[in-house]
Amino acid sequence: MSELPAGVERRTVAGEERLTTEGEPVYGEPTVDGRRVWDAGRSKLGAMLELEMDTRLEGGESVLYLGAASGTTVSHVADFSGPTYAVEFAPRPVRQLVEVAAGRPRLFPLLADARKPKEYAGVVEADLDCIVQDVATRGQADVANRNAQFLTEGGLLLAAVKARSEDVVAEPDEVFEEVTTTLEQEYDVLETVRLDPYHEDHLGVVARRR
Amino acid sequence: MTDAGTDSGWFESVPPDDLEAARKAIENGSGESPKDWPTRAVEAGFAEDKEEYYDRLHEATIYAAREAAREAERADDKQLVHALRAMDDTERTANELSERLEEWAGALLDIEIDATGLDFAAVVADEDPENATEERAVSLAQRVVDLRAERDDLRTFIERRAPEVAPNLAEMAGPVLAARLISLAGGLEPLAKKPSGTVQVLGAEDALFAHLRGHAPSPKHGVIFTHEFVRGTRLEDRGSASRALAGKLSIAARIDHYSGDMRPDLHEELRDRMDTIRARANEADEAEVIDE
Distance, in angstroms, between B95 CA and closest chain A CA? Predict the structure, then answer.
């Protein structure tokens, strides 16, 4: 079993082993001993950990989170990480993301377009340890490549790639191969795993900046 | 978007307690590349130490994101329609002017490059004019380049606003086509009230009236032709594809107008339907192989 980052622990909840982190509940998730359950069905990074991918996270990393949406996953990430920058493009979920961030002093919400890193290069610091990416837009590999500039050398990319965002009718495997090839312009791809049954037609990717 | 200078952090020229100034700096800032902002902010005296910097950053980003989200919630379909029409106008005008420019500056400046239209205008805009005539041509080229940039900004604005005004429609059609449908219908409410058969042929009015006068076949699609589901489907099945798409688009418009919730199921249903329609092409291919 690959190791979980410090701060993420498995606990038995209602007879099942679940991932948990310590922190304020945000979306009505169940809690146990003051720890809240990280639902792999609602979070792609949660699914990557649940499927025992080796994320190489140790806990305490500085993070750029692309595609934060309403902050479900980012709340867990911020609870076991260092400074966390959360980028989301759509204003509606940002309203909720702001509430999640308000109670987490090292979580910084940004309403910006992950495809245009220049929009936030004056705010997000350089030499971060990790990028977590979950953007449902065409050109997901390009988004990761363009944002590689925020990573320190050897910094981690943890991405969930959605096949249907690239091409609704192509075979997911073909899409994933193309995405992986494009990622290799900036990263060494270390591990890829399909996120079924938690998320259909999604590929979990662990990569390291070259 | 204004450029606050290259490689400057958001905190530069922001007084530590001025949230409104911080918000403007965060929203409008653009830098060439990220830097070690916490260290720089401490060096610049914006904060005592990194911890204080992060506290200020937290306060500023929360304020900026909250205000920006609130502003977007007030988004209405009228502004979206204006932006879309302005985008089309700037594009058309930029193209017209660049044709004029090709005719004029091509001979005047003796430029021998393999570029046309807007690319050509960009080259002319960078020339040094040597007399009054050239000055006018170069100046015109600069306007063309500016118009083109304005068009791109309007498009970005639409991409950001359409999902606010009509989340399901924008998800299904893409933000620009969603705005176009709203524009053709005259607003989100009128679009929500139209039957799907009308949505299917919005933008194909000429063909529709030719058909109604009795001397043309009925149009299969209007602007929804630009959607991948229609354009990417083989000719024989495009009628089915555009009918299916228009049906779901009109449901999406109704949900957006009357409730505003995101409904993932609706998008899933459309994808399943499209898979079925596109499978026909594969079946036909296979049948052919067997025949041979």
Answer: 26
With CA atoms as reference, the chain A residue closest to B58 would be A108
* Residue range B12-65, pLDDT digits in tens: 888 888 999 999 999 887 778 999 999 999 999 999 999 999 999 999 999 999
In a domain, A163, yes or no: yes
Q: In which residue are the tokens 């995405």 written?
A: A179
CA distance B14 to B7: 15
Domain count, chain A: 1
In a domain, A26, yes or no: no
- Per-residue confidence (pLDDT) for residue B107, from 0 to 100: 79
Predicted pLDDT of residue B4: 42
> Which residues of chain B fall below pLDDT 50?
1-5
Token duo for residue B265:
């199921």
pLDDT tens-digit readout, A124-144: 999 999 999 999 888 999 999
For A94, nearest residue in chain B (alpha carbons) = B69
Answer whether residue A20 is part of any domain. Answer: no
* Domain assignment of residue A4, yes or no: no
CATH number at residue A78: 3.40.50.150
**Cβ atoms of residues B244 and B273 within 8 Å:** yes
Judged by DSSP in three states, A134 sits in coil
Count of CB atoms within 10 A of residue B53's CB?
23
Question: For residue A144, what are the domain limits?
Answer: 43-209
